Amino acid sequence: MTTTPHPETLAIRSGRHLTHCNEHSLPLFLTSSFLTESAEDARQLFAGEADGYTYSRFTNPTVNAFEERLAALEGGERCQATASGMAAIHAVLFTHLSAGDHVVASRSLFGATYTMLATLLPRFGIEVSFVEPADLSAWQVAIRGNTRLFFLETPSNPQTELTDIAAVAGIAHAAGALLVVDNCFCSPALQTPLALGADLVVHSGTKYIDGQGRVLGGAVVGSDKLIEPVYLYVRTTGPTLSAFNAWVLLSGLETLFVRMERHCASALKLATWLEQLPQVRRVRYPGLPSHPQFELARRQQRAGGAVIAFELDGGREAAWKVVDAISMISRTGNFGDVKSTLTHPATTTHGRLAPEVREAAGITEGLLRLSVGLEHPDDIQADLLRGLA
Fold this sequence. Notes:
The protein is α/β, with parallel strands linked by helices. It has 14 helices and 12 strands. Its EC number is 2.5.1.-.
């Protein structure tokens, strides 16, 4: 009999601190500030000499419950919640980097993440080198004397390219650098990067953690030593997660594992079907044996995930035909929802990138990103056929 709770149990039972009311569901502390017992009590709280709550930009019980639960699922000592996934990435980069530092990053990234690394960091004197995510030698060659941080997504958005987390962690640590992994595509239900050697994990809670497209939210998970400066940065600059959004994300975590099991089963069925269509040039799904890194996916993920990238012959015209023809699947830039979504990355999520950057990342005009929801897979297939027939 195991004495350590399984992740499925932690997703429901961790982070629970009952009030005097003995509530069964976690309460929502919708307040901007908290009362103190005395002037000395206030002094100690604001000085950090005593535990407690003063102001919700600093800490909030509902937000803390979400942070504890996500940290437990990722296997981290501590979590810092943020207002969005991009706020989480921003906080990590501006906490752990300074002018004169150098970053090595995967060239296969979400559009806003790439833009932050390529255009925002250099304004503050931070250099960035982009490398092929699967080429371990490229990560090694890119290292300089001032390299302080490695950054990657795996699987990547939208191409589902994988990076060997354990191998890149070894390269980073040998150079004295931190490894930061964006775990949005998998969530802790499918992948735990800290266990594979990553130092920090970032999330957009908006995706699978919420799972229903209701709220924005983000998080950073890691050791107490690495999260403490992130907390101080977020506390000072203000991109904190609201109590209401944290409450929604907490409820999302409770169903995360059962949702991801269904997401993945349907995605595998649909990816297998898409691969057989003559008008589909290629399908990228980590759960398919045809994926270039299928064996890596089997080692570091519990399943293939719920996002399929597929490229059509006929370029933008063919891709837009499918996007315009669907009637059930949602046309939106978001993913990770119970409702299936279809996106044309080249003109939406990655549309602001230079054409040569998109080309290098394999984001062609014929590429579509399908986020498989919880509808019956036969109905998703039938809807796609409206534009593929």
